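Protocol step 4 of 5: obtain the predicted structure for the target chain.
Materials: sequence only (see below). No template structures provided, no constraints applied. The aim of this step is simply to have a reference model before the mutagenesis design in step 5. Sequence pasted as it appears in the construct record:
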Amino acid sequence: MENFWQDLKHSLRMFLRSPGFTLTAIAAIALGVGANTAIFSLIDRVLLRPMPYPNADRIVFFMNVYPGGSGQGASPAKFNFWKAQTQSIQDAAAWRFGVANYNPGDRPEQIQETQVTSDFFRLFGSSALFGRTFTFDEALPGGPNVVDLSYEFWQRRFGSDPAVVGKTIELSGEPAQIIGVLRPGLKIEIDQPPDVYAPFRIAPNSTEQGNYFNSGARLKPGITLEAANAQIRVASEEFRRNYPNFMDPKQTFGVEPLREVLVRGTRTLLLVLMGAVGLVLLIACANVANLLLARATGRKREISIRAAVGAGRGRIIRQLLTESVVLSMIGGVFGLALGFVGIRAILTISAGNIPRIGSQPTEVSMDLTVVLFTLGLSFATGILFGLIPALQSSRADLSSTLKESAGRGGSSFRHNKSVPCWWWWKWRWLWCC
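Step 4 output (structure tokens):
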């Protein structure tokens, strides 16, 4: 530990003696690390972070499967058919996003309304903080106009008043009774966060074929994704027989995990961006390594003296690697700040186009995972660009380097010392005599 502190203090002294080199190296490292930090923040939020739902890995979307791919889109007839496949799925729910005009009289506004079937709240693990969610009968055609408020909308427009349950509000010109306020945390990570939830009225025997909403379910315990797809694919033939004019001959049905549906259009782009910024970091490492190699030429005498007084090659390599790691960690701190600025810039430009973020870009933050990634990347960067210069500098020929330094020192003394010419002639005459 004592040797480490000595190496650390020596590294800081060396950096202060060469401010130009130090600032240039830190800037190169900060740019490379900052770009990687910004893109990793997006990858962590979109691809790595768990979905905020219970048993989220078993939530699936119903899909229309074609030879060239698959796509969302459900009709009432399809939803009723899919919902009947109870041997493999449960909690089948449908939802669609929309807007409503909320008119309390003083401050009318357009709010986000999501129409959902009664199983929606069970599928996504939500319950009411006050009151209740609507029942299956209330979601049938002809049911009463009832709504559940989101927690955020309840706070914003009703001042967190628990007595709001039972009151009637006007939505798009129609009265609707508030029957509950949902607990905070329900976020459908595919669109705008809803302000109110209204019943999505689908008749159980509907044969309507228009595709205008999404639907999903949860796989039953013990049912794998492959097994569910096999069962639903076979069942799709029954749907084709019942509705021959509404299904392509090569079309079948299937299910896909919720995460895959949300991020499949973005995963490739994010991974390509990560590769690009990784290449930027490698270029920065190469540039800093070249700077260290050039700097090592002027440090031959210092390293030779250290070796002459007993420092082994391993000790010298450790000192030089300590310098490079300290340099990269300082650059990493500045890179973390640049990454924060970079992620804010990306979200300002195109937050609405990034899944699992939508209109809530503030949720992408420099959390502990991102900070640890940045610090680990900075440490690895220091080893990467410092190892080759350290190995090369530690192999210097001690004898020749000291002789060369001594020769340069002597010639420097003779040539640089200001001695009048007549003194030189005087001492030459005395020597000849």
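Step 4 remarks: Residues 258-297 form the longest helix (40 residues). The CA atoms of residues 97 and 114 lie 5 Å apart.
Proceed to step 5.
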